[in-house]
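User: Second chain of the day. Same drill as before.
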Amino acid sequence: MLKTTIKLAFRNLFRQKVYSFIIILSLAFGLSLSNILFVFLFRELSTDSFHTNKGRIYRLLSNNPMGQTGKISFILVKSTKYIDDNYPEIEAICKIAAIDDIALSNNATIWDDKIILGADSAFFTVFDFPLMQGNKETALQPGGIVLTRRLAEVIFGHPDAIGEDILLQQKNIQKVVTVTGILDEIPGQSHLKFDALVSYAEFDNLWWSVDYLLLNANVNPLEQADKINRDKHVPGLLGPGKSEFFLQPLDRVYFDQSNTRTFSVARDKIFIWIGSTVSFLILLIAGFNFINLFLLLLMKRKKEFGLKKVLGASVASIRNTTMTEVFIYVSLSYALSLLLTLFLLPEFNNTVNTSIELSDFSNFNMIMGYGAIIFLLGATVVYYLSARLSKIPPISIISGNVSSRITFNNTMLQFQFVISIVLVICAITIIEQMNYIKNKPLGFNRNLIELQVADSIMKTKLPVLKQKLLEISGINNAAISNGNPLGNWKIRYELENDDYYSPNVFSGDEDLINTFGLKVISGDYHQRKGAIVNEKLVQYFNLTDPLGQILPGAKDEIIAVVKDFNIGSFKNEIPPVVIILDESDHLAKSIIMDYTSGMLAGILKEIKKRWQQVYPDYPFEYRLIEDELMKAHKDDLYFLKIIVSFALIGILITCSGLFSLAWAITQNRTKEIGIRKVIGATFIDIFKLLTVDFSKWILVAFILATPIAWFLMNEWLQNFSFRIKLSPIIFMTGGLIIFLIALMTVSIHTIRAARGHPADELRNE
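Assistant: Same format as last time:
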């Protein structure tokens, strides 16, 4: 019996090839994309879960001494030592710090692009990074280095590198270190990213770290933090007892974007929730579309079911047969979704900067989840078909007196259109905001190139390099600087009555203002040393005549005021800014150049030549300031790519359902169309007849989708201090796009029906 049922199911599948293909393909796309997103979300939420003691590991944070809200992971070494020595409730403390401007060398090859961390011996006590070779107790002693398996294979050609020597180069210091450990592949997601570990004690100039604490079992982290904060002798950035400390659970570290370092990664948690919502909506669209289309396919066979009932078949037997057909369709869709996943996965990994592998899809929970989806889809189809057939006498089905139109179809299709319109409006809004970021005047020159130097010896040649760079055609200005509008530092200026403020600060020579393209409102900074401030600082202190006054909390004279300009990302308000002009600035570590747009490729070649003339022993590296601006919005760019991609897929799935539904309705109204043509209906009349219902559905969907999209995008835009306004044009454009796509989809059938000959349409009636 089962064999016969399966044979008939495949026969029916091939009898309606186009219709069946649409059903299978639309569900396959939905399953594939949802599968990828669910695996991605599962990986993200399980970051750092491979550590055995994950529930007892905390990152130590301090209050921000610059007066800003939030916490920082910048901890003084003396603070770490005091806490480690005086609190036995803490089983271990691990200090971690990035070693800047460092390279590994083996004979003639130099690797200067690797992330090398200084870590103390407690690293392998706190964390469970798998050590393939070496002893966890002694691997991080001075003179040793621990390599990842991948880096060991790059340097030595094989992972068995224990005992091998390698040269560690930092500025003018060179040390020979011995490989004391090889790390195996990490068995999961980790917020820590590195290529090698060396002993923290190896570097005398490290005076701060990021600290991870392993608490003893049954120690309450809140009580422990409170106990530390009550201790008036704990060293801190502002002095003993003046800092407040916090213990951040390990499972929250990955989602803390305010404390990322060069060796750590973070993800905005809203990105996770949005991804969850989008994947659920896509799966919902695909599921509704499948139910809708499969019910239409079955109702086209109403005479077959009527005949079976006349011959004695029960509703239960028809239900079992239908369940078998549903299982076949869903199984074929799932198999096709796996093939689609193979093609889509590399692009998805590249888009959201992740590394999902095929093995991640073998997760038991994922398999059970999709089993539940298959059961739910089948049960829904069978339920509605059974409910429909049980109420209809067999003779009515056979005679054709029963309409195959199902009210639920319209409801589901409208729901699909609501989701599609919401996704399209969201995509348009995000595109507009990102274009706003790319094109809005920043208050400073976007076309800036920065070259940084590594050490004090290189700094002495910066004036020479600057003069050589100014000889290049297309370089308009150049300045020696320390920082830029997107990469600056903060200084805490003490005021009276224990008050203070913390402006953004950068410094450089007298060409800095022209190079940045800042607009000077008042004052003369040429041939003068002093401080240049922005309008925000003047307003902050209500300075009526700032020129000639001493910068509050400092000794520098205010020599000029510049118009406000953006600092950091568009998510931040413009803060008070201080620019120190000093030719002898000992902190200067880079050269900033203003270049002519459209000439970048040729300019970079010339810059590299000049660099190699001045610094022949150092690799050439540069940064584009505009690229740094977009990096500050990388999560928004990920969000944009996901929303646009899924909006397109949502439209594709919805329109596949609309295509099939239009075909079914056109087939059902063949007799009506023929009669209307006989009595004089024109092509336009028939076209309107067949499209008016679809237009109504889209209009209703647009009305429902507009407030949803407005709420979602208004909430998202609140993250930006500088943002677009949600204009009616955005919503009208989103609705119009869906309407035109739907109209073109429906027109494939309606035009054919409207242009057909009445005799052909009435021949079989």
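The CA atoms of residues 605 and 611 lie 10 Å apart.

User: Great, on to the next one.
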